[in-house]
Amino acid sequence: MSEARSKILTDEFAKLQADMNKAVEARQRLDAQLSENESVLKEFSTLTPNNTVFKMIGPVLVKQDQAEARTNVEKRLEFIRGEIQRVEATLKDVGTKLEKKKADLASLNAQLGAVPGAAPVVGA
To answer: Given this model, what pLDDT does residue 20 score?
Structure first.
């Protein structure tokens, strides 16, 4: 029975680690997007009313109003910051679950260590 339990705990731990890796990758992508959009917003401050702003739609550059372009970038930044908060909450939640599973695995290893002939659980 404890071998089956150790297999279940190990599988759950591996799944949580995969979830953590996905969340970390998402956070890194969001950081890159945030940085890029902040740079674009900073560039808007250097423009004069006479400058023309273009937006790339597919392979085509389309003229866009400066105010509209700035508003779009500001909304995008707001969205990205919201997504970062969501991913941070996910990272915290998965981290907590990982620590609990790690403790469960350590506890099971301690129990198995007390049983003669039992093999320790991998991943603890």
So the answer is: 96
Q: For residue 80, what pLDDT is reported?
A: 98
Say yes or no to pLDDT of 124 above 50.
Answer: no
20 secondary structure, DSSP code: H
Nearest by Cα to 119 from 28, 22, 19, 3: 3
Give the confidence band of 109 by pLDDT, cuts at 50, 70, 90. confident
Which position has the token pair 């959009």? Answer: 37
Closest alpha carbon to 11 in 104, 117, 116, 112: 104
Please determine, for residue 95, whether its predicted confidence score (pLDDT) is greater than 60.
yes
Q: Give the integer Cα–Cα distance in Å for 88 and 97.
A: 14
1 SS3 class? coil
Residues forming beta bridges with residue 53, ordered by sequence position = 64
What is the C-alpha to C-alpha distance for residues 86 and 27, in angstroms, rounded to an integer?
Answer: 10
Integer-rounded Cα radius of gyration of the chain: 25
**Residues shown for the chain:** 124
Amino acid at 21: N
Cα–Cα distance between 39 and 91 in angstroms, integer? Answer: 26
